[in-house]
Design a protein that fits this description.
- The protein has four domains: about 90 residues, Zinc finger, CHC2-typedomain (DNA Primase, Chain A), CATH 3.90.580.10; about 130 residues, Alpha-Beta Complex (DNA primase DNAg catalytic core, N-terminal domain); about 170 residues, Dna Topoisomerase Vi A Subunit, Chain: A, domain 2 (3-Layer(aba) Sandwich); about 55 residues.
- It has 23 helices and 16 strands.
- α3 crosses α4.
């Protein structure tokens, strides 16, 4: 992101620049506790919501989400390029920029990968029209009710059988490297063939970002082979935990008032085929808080569509937990469960668009689903079970920041259990209240109004407070852990490992203008609202909790493996893991 200018030089400039003085010369700041505030220079407001931290050399607007360090402020406020802004900061410090060409933009950095994906998708589209075995793919699409118009709208393609359709095509070296980097070609070092195709004998679905650029490809087999769906691997331009298939196409279809979240590519396309052009799908991952925030920036009403079986209910409950930290007054969530054996594709083809839309109207609301799900095994005539319900729901409600909605949830719980919330202690005052929120800037993420409670976010907030705390984190292998923002945490740890002395401001600047930067800015901003605490003890507690999650995950995986392949070796390993888990849990209680 910073071209050939060393990160160490950028950190030196930022470390020697006083952000408060820099901004105060342009926007008059007022002292507010240990921070400074003003009306935001990036959007119109009457009540100050723009906060600057001298300690962290970081600014954040709780109204529009504008955030960054000294460099990003000059770039955004004075409309300068990166090099000019860096020169302006370095010059008063007596520092000269190292010899370097002008820093390429993010788009230029990503251009080779975007070009490679576009090249591959263009090739796959041609094969759907011209390959000798194209009829297999066309017959499959027709059997699923997909017309040529919809196939063209979603740019569907066909990866023919064989190992080297894409690999043997003539292309410049940079395109071939781009295909390798994005995982569409795979190096084969054990034979004379240099590389082979990742996608073979599959319908191809291009995955687009909000600008319409292809950032990844998905493929579905034409038979019952496994895996049924295959996505190109994550890269610097493709993060499955943030992207939604069909979102770009839904926006292109016209103004949308609601979005329905379904499971697969074909569900999105089938609904569009029947005129329901507001469906999106996650990319093989559970719906995340990031997904929901992205959708809520576009619409006020989300409907989650799940299978009616036990797996569907588990997936729905995961979606509930992802929704709670970002639900706000005026936003609506619905949960729609399909008849057993149906998916949106089959249901809309059998019943039609009107009937499907009617089912959406009858979707169960978030509150109804929460109360029903948590009380399904309880007898609410029993005082004991009423207490259990309250015990289950209160931690969930604590994640919600929507004032009116939260009040109504508490009233409902009180009407069922007879329990009422105790009045707050009038002598207790919040350490640093959040500034009043203004209308969000149309190009910025609207920040949450309370701190996230996820384990990874807690670790990230501590690292943003002091990057040197990374040396105290004792973490297991984070790969594949079922935790929200685990990829974000890994990216931050990797950056700190590469630049051990990087400052918080330097880290935020490194990812300025990216999704990672937006996520980190929100987490860093919550530090404005949190009281001082013992970071070293919290690091120890968080490290232990990561090990507990890792051990639970490994035990779950071994349990599944044992059902398929019983063996004494696996059983012994599971026993050892259980013992280690109990030790970790006891350690967490001390």
């Amino acid at each position: 992101m910073t071209g050939r200018i060393a990160q160490s030089f950028i950190d030196r400039v930022l470390d020697r620049t006083d952000l408060v003085d820099l901004i105060d010369r342009r926007v008059k700041l007022k002292r507010s506790g240990k921070n400074y505030s003003a009306c935001c220079p990036f959007h119109q407001e009457k009540t100050p919501s723009f906060t600057v931290s001298r300690e962290k050399q970081f600014y954040y607007c709780f109204g529009c989400g504008a955030s960054g360090n000294a460099l990003s402020f000059l770039m955004d406020y004075e409309h300068q390029g990166f090099i000019d802004a860096l020169k302006q900061l370095a010059s008063p410090l007596g520092l000269d920029l190292p010899d370097t060409a002008e820093t390429p933009t993010a788009r230029e950095d990503h251009a080779p990968l975007l070009a490679a994906l576009e090249f591959a998708n263009r090739s796959f589209k041609l094969q759907l029209r011209h390959h000798p075995q194209k009829q297999r793919a066309i017959a499959y699409l027709k059997q699923r009710g997909i017309t040529g118009d919809i196939a063209r709208e979603f740019s569907l393609g066909y990866a023919p059988p064989g190992w080297d359709h894409l690999a043997k095509q003539a292309m410049p070296p940079e395109l071939r490297q781009g295909l390798l980097t994005t995982g569409l070609l795979i190096e084969r070092k054990d034979s004379g063939q240099a590389c082979y195709d990742a996608m073979r004998d599959r319908i191809i679905f291009p995955i687009r970002d909000f600008r319409g650029r292809i950032i990844g490809l998905g493929g579905r087999v034409l038979n019952d082979d496994k895996p049924k769906y295959l996505n190109s691997p994550e890269s610097i331009i493709f993060h499955k935990g943030r992207e939604l298939y069909g979102l770009y196409e839904a926006k292109q279809a016209g103004k949308i008032k609601q979005l329905v979240v379904v499971e697969g590519y074909m569900d999105v396309i089938a609904l569009a085929q029947h005129g329901l052009r507001f469906a999106v799908a996650t990319l093989g991952t559970a719906t995340s808080t990031t997904h929901i925030e992205r959708m809520f920036r576009l619409v006020d009403h989300l409907i989650f569509c799940f299978d009616g079986d036990e797996a569907g209910r588990r997936a729905a409950w995961k979606a509930v937990n992802a929704c709670l930290p970002v639900i706000t007054d005026g936003k609506r969530l619905g949960f729609m469960f399909l008849p057993e054996g149906d998916d949106p594709d089959s249901l809309v083809r059998r019943e039609g668009a009107a009937a499907f839309a009617e089912r959406m109207q009858q979707a169960e609301g978030l509150a109804d689903f929460m109360f029903r799900h948590q009380s399904a095994d309880l007898n609410l005539e029993s005082l004991e079970d009423k207490a259990v319900l309250a015990q289950r729901l209160r931690p969930l409600m604590d994640q919600i920041s929507a004032g009116i909605y939260l009040d109504l949830l508490r009233q409902r719980l009180a009407s069922i259990t007879g329990l009422h919330e105790a009045p707050a202690n009038p002598t207790e005052q919040p350490a640093s209240p959040a500034p009043r929120t203004a209308t969000p800037h149309p190009f910025k993420r609207r920040p949450p109004t309370r701190a996230s409670t996820s384990l990874c976010d807690k670790a990230l907030r501590l690292l943003l407070q002091n990057t040197q705390l990374a040396t105290e984190l004792d973490l297991p292998d984070l790969k594949d852990l079922p935790l929200e923002h685990v990829d974000l945490l890994q990216a931050v740890l990797d950056l700190i490992a590469q630049h051990p002395h990087i400052s918080t401001a330097g880290m935020l600047g490194f990812w300025h203008g990216t999704d990672i930067g937006a996520d980190l800015a929100i987490l860093a901003a919550t530090e404005f609202l949190l009281p001082e605490h013992d970071s070293h003890q919290e690091i120890a507690d968080i490290s232990n909790r990561f090990h507990v999650v890792y051990l639970e995950h490994r035990i779950d995986m071994l349990t599944t493996e044992l059902t398929q392949n019983p063996s004494m070796q696996l059983l012994s390993e599971q026993v050892i893991l259980h013992q280690e888990l109990e030790n970790r849990r006891r350690q967490g209680h001390h």
